[in-house]
Design goal:
Distance between the termini: 42 Å
CATH architecture: Alpha-Beta Barrel
Number of helices: 11
CATH superfamily: Aldolase class I
CATH class: Alpha Beta
Largest sheet: 8 strands, parallel, barrel
Mean pLDDT: 94
Order of helices and strands: HHEHEEEHHEHEEEHEHEHEEEHEH
Bound molecules: phosphoenolpyruvate, cobalt (II) ion
Number of strands: 14
Radius of gyration: 21 Å
Number of domains: 1
Low-confidence stretches: none
Structural class: alpha/beta
Helix content: 25-40%
């Protein structure tokens, strides 16, 4: 049950990071009122279902695939983009089911991933300094004074874009999605370029044979009605989260109904801070990003605040150390969690600790660094007597050029060809598929 000393507004009395001040407080109040009147984006029933599945993941029965853009943009809310994102996540989940022989919980960074934490409050270009861009939920990316002023109406725009995104995804899933049953639509040309092409072809052949077999036994599978898909985003902008945090009939708890699974970012996880205060009272399953500065002591305190009853299915630790730090940072944290017998799920985010800038100033990540961190996390968790419960990627269903490496061997010079992200670099379609194949191979070899 939500704690008695908590309310959806109790975070306001705590110190808050990444805050924005709206210059027009009357307009802000009007937006908050409007947003709190709208119907929720997700339901408490779906949230409870996800909690049960995450509890089963802690017992090794499910595996989590969480992925999507670093920051969604409003103009990427189009049928092509949504379809391609859903397709890449569903295909990756098939590959992971093959590799792990577990059900996969599909968790998009989608339908609300609109607010971004920034390392600096301001940005300077050619001697001009302006407030930083904080994602479309807050302000606009153009480098002008006006664009960078926080506009509360962006919260209504964010809500509306999240609603149409969810609506379209739900229809695609409920109505069947032809791409999924036809391996000939899976765009697998990149496989021939890889040194692992034989293994990759073998996995796809097995998946394709299984679909054929299922269709012979069970008849044509033309609906994916049984395919569940959940959404998630960083719960960074607390006014937006609070406006949709409600009690629902016949349930005791408070739910944040903007998304199934909100998470606390690396920059806002202070024990005495506003974000931890807000998150401790909502009944959703939640994540916390855990980076290199976390200590075992602080981690145990945080876990106790966020999951005081040590319930399964409540808490995921999403670790993001960077491949060079994993061996040093992860083992003491895992030992502490094991020693205190805390119930939670370990997820690896091998993206956020592996970002660097190229000579011409583009942010990028290398496919090999990402894979190295992920395999390191798998190995350490296994060695410490627990297991990796899921993976968290920034990815897109298009063939953008933002990360280097993969079967096509993208170099830093190739990045300018189709570099689209406004924030962090994402794996493209081919790189994401290949990453899933390599993980599936590793999972299959763990079973052997
Ligand atoms: C993110 O997930 O986009 C992000 C900002 O991550 P982190 O909080 O781990 O830096
Ligand atoms: Co990011």
């Amino acid at each position: 049950m939500s704690p008695s000393d908590w309310s959806p507004e109790s975070w306001k009395s705590k110190p808050i990071k990444q805050w924005v001040d709206y210059p027009d407080q009357d307009e802000y109040a009007a937006v908050m009122h409007e947003l709190s009147q709208y119907p929720p984006l997700v339901t408490s029933g779906e949230i409870e279902q996800l909690r049960q599945e995450l509890a089963a993941a802690e017992d090794g029965k499910y595996f989590v695939l969480q992925g999507g853009d670093c920051s969604e943009t409003f103009d990427a809310c189009s049928s092509d983009r949504i379809t391609s994102k859903l397709k890449i996540l569903l295909l990756m989940s098939y590959i992971l089911i093959y590799g792990s022989r577990k059900r996969v919980i599909r968790l998009g960074r989608i339908a609300g991933q609109y607010a971004k934490p920034r390392s600096k409050d301001t940005e300077t270009r050619d001697g001009v300094t302006l407030p930083s861009y904080r994602g479309p939920l807050i302000n606009s990316p153009e480098f002008t004074e006006e664009a960078r002023i926080p506009d509360p109406w962006n919260m209504i725009r964010g809500y509306s874009h999240a609603a149409v995104t969810l609506n379209f995804m739900r229809s695609l899933i409920a109505g069947g999605f032809a791409d999924m049953h036809h391996p000939e639509y899976w765009e697998l040309g990149f496989i021939n370029l890889s040194e692992h092409s034989r293994e990759y072809r073998h996995i796809f052949q097995s998946i394709s044979t299984s679909i054929d077999f299922m269709e012979i036994v069970a008849g044509k599978i033309d609906s994916l009605a049984e395919t569940r898909f959940y959404c998630s985003h960083e719960g960074l902008h607390l006014p937006y989260e609070m406006a949709q945090t409600r009690r629902v009939p016949r349930r005791e708890n408070w739910y944040d109904l903007t998304t199934h699974f909100p998470w606390i970012g690396e920059r806002t996880r202070q024990l005495d801070g506003a974000h931890v205060e807000f998150f401790r009272g909502i009944a959703n399953p939640i994540g916390v990003k855990v980076g290199p500065t976390m200590t075992p002591d602080e981690l145990i305190k945080l876990v106790e605040v966020l999951n005081p009853k040590n319930e399964k299915g409540r808490l995921c630790l999403i670790c993001r150390f960077g491949m060079a730090n994993v061996e040093k940072c992860l083992p003491p944290l895992v030992s502490a969690i094991q020693e205190h017998k805390k119930n939670l799920l370990w997820i690896s985010d091998p993206m956020h600790g592996n970002t660097h800038s190229t000579a011409n100033g583009l942010k990028t990540r290398s496919f090999d660094d990402i894979l190295k961190e992920l395999l390191g996390v798998m190995r350490i968790l296994d060695r410490e007597g627990t297991h990796l419960g899921g993976i968290h990627f920034e990815l897109t269903g298009e063939n953008v050029t933002e990360c280097t490496g993969g079967a096509r061997g993208l170099t830093e010079d190739d990045l300018v060809k189709d570099y689209q992200t406004e924030v962090d670099p994402r794996l493209n379609y081919e790189q994401a598929m290949e990453m899933a194949l390599l993980i599936a191979e590793r999972q299959a070899s763990f079973r052997r």
